[in-house]
Amino acid sequence: MSFDNCCNCSSFRIGNRGKQYVNLCATLLLEVNAADIALKLLRYCQNILTGYSFRSAETCYLLGNIYEDLAASKKDHSVNYVDKARQAYQESLVFRPSYRDAKYRLCYLEGDFPTVLSFSLTPKRKKEHAAEQCTLYLAYLAAHVNGDSSAIVDAAKNCILSTFRFVLPPRPDDFIWCLNTPYALLTATKRKRASCQLLAMDDRGVRYWHQNVTPQAWLDMALTGCTVAYQEKRYDDMVEIAFYAILTAELHEPAAKTVVMDDKSSSLVRVSDRQWQLSRVHLAIAVAAFHMRPAWEMNDSDDRPTWTDRKAFFYDYIRVLVNRHGAMDLAVDLWNPFYALIMDEAVVPNIAVGKWGHFFTKKKGFSMHVQMILANDALRRRGAAYHAYTLYRGIEQSMGKHTPWQVYLGLGILAVNVACRFGMSRKLRAKFYASSMAYLMKYEQLRRSCPEVLYNKARAAQEFGDAAVAVGYYRQCIRLTDLTVCTGDGLELAGVAQLMDYKFRAAFNLRQLLVEKARFVEARALMTTGGPLSWKSFTDGKTAHSRC
C-alpha cells in the first residue's frame, strides 16, 4: 500500500504523543532496512498533519539516520544523501546544541578516515583490519566529542599503534637509540605500500559508505594525542604517539596542491602545511624526551645524562628542525626553546653560535630570527653593542614596513648603549641618543601606549643622563599603571602583578632621580602611606585591585 493512495484529508492536528508515535514507526522501518518508506512516512506526515514538522532535534536526527541508510544502499545515485544527512545533523544541533548523538554523527561524517594500514597483512585480513582500525578511529572521535582527556590519549595511541603491530613492539625502550640520535628520525623508516580504503561502519556492522581520505586526519589525531598527553603529563604515551606518527611513510609524501574556486571563478592554489605540522610532531618528540626521566635513567650506570646533557640533546634536535626549514618564518613554539637554549653557555659555546649563524645565512639566505639571535649573542656574551646595533639595522633595512616592534625596541636600547661609550664626541653622542628616541617612538606606535613602553623610554633616558625626560616618563608610567589596574575589571591576577612590577620599578628609579636632584619632599612622598613605594601597595595584585 502506498502513502499516495491514502485519504486526501485537508489537515489533521497531532500532539506530542502522536509525534512520538510517528518517530517510533519511522525508527522501526529503519531497523528493517526500509529507509525509503520511513522517509516517505515523515514527508507524508509533514504535508498532512498540521502539528507535525521537522523543527525538533529528535526528528532531524532521525532524518539524518534515514539519509545515511539511503547513502549506504545507493539506490539513487543522483542524490547526495551524505550531504543531506550532514545538513540534518546540523539542524538538530541548532535546535539542541548539546545533542551528543548528533554531534558524534556529524563529526563522523565530516572526519577523514586514515588510509594507513599495516603492510604485512594478507589480502584476506586487510578487510578485517580496516574494520578494526575504523572502530578505533571512531572511538577516538567519540572521546574527542565527549572531552575525555584520558580516553583521547588511549584511543589515539591504540589507533596509531595498530598499523605497526607487526613491525615494532610498542615499548618506549626501543626508542632510546633514536632519542640519542636526532638525525635518525628525519626520514620515514616504514616501507612504502599502497593504502586501502576504509569501510565506515556503525555499531551494528552495517556498511554505510566509502570515502577516499588523506593522511591529514592521521596527523591531526597524532598532534591532538601528543598535546593532551603533555597536558596530562603522560610523557611515555606522548613519545609513542609522536614516534609512530613520524615513522609513517604516507605523512612524508609531498602534499598535493588543491585548486579552490572563489566567487569570481578565479583559481586559487592552496598548499597543505603538512610539513610544518610534522615539525610540530618532531618538537613533541623532543619535549617528551626531555621530560621522560625513566627513558633516560633506565640504566644504573654512573654515566647518567645530566641536566645539561638533556638540554644539549634538546638543542641539537631543534637545530636540525631549524636547519631544515630554511629562511621561512618558523612557528613560535620552535623558536622560543631554540632561542632560550642557544643563549645558554653551558649548552652552546660562544664560537658555535657565530659559526652556525654564518653558515645558515650563507646557505639558506636572510632570516630575521637568525639575525636577532646573532645580535643578542654579540651583545650578551661579548658586549659588542655596535656590532649588535649594525645587525639590527640590517633587519630593519631588509624588513622595511614589516619590521616588528621587537626590532625597534632592540635598536633603541642598543643606540643608547652606543651613545654611552667612552671616547665619543658630544655631537655623535647626541645623534645616537636622538636616534634611540626615534626608534622608541616607532616602538610605541606599534606597541601602543602602555606602562611597558613608558618604562622602557624612561629607562633609556635615565641611562643617557636626561633626568628631566626620565622623570616625566616615570610619572606617566605610574599614573597609567594606576588607571589600568583600577579600570581593568577583566584583568587577570598575572597581568595585575606585572603592572605592579612596572609601577614599583618606575617609582624606585624615580625616587633615585629625585634624591639626586635634591627634591627630598617629592622623594619622601613616594614612600609614605598610599604612595607607590609604600609596603601596603605591594602585598598582592588582588589587594591593589580592590583598593582602587
Automatic annotation (TrEMBL):
PANTHER family: GENERAL TRANSCRIPTION FACTOR 3C POLYPEPTIDE 3, TRANSCRIPTION INITIATION FACTOR IIIC TFIIIC , POLYPEPTIDE 3-RELATED. It comes from Hypsibius exemplaris (Freshwater tardigrade). This is Uncharacterized protein. InterPro entries: Tfc4/TFIIIC-102/Sfc4. GO terms for cellular component: transcription factor TFIIIC complex. GO terms for biological process: transcription by RNA polymerase III.
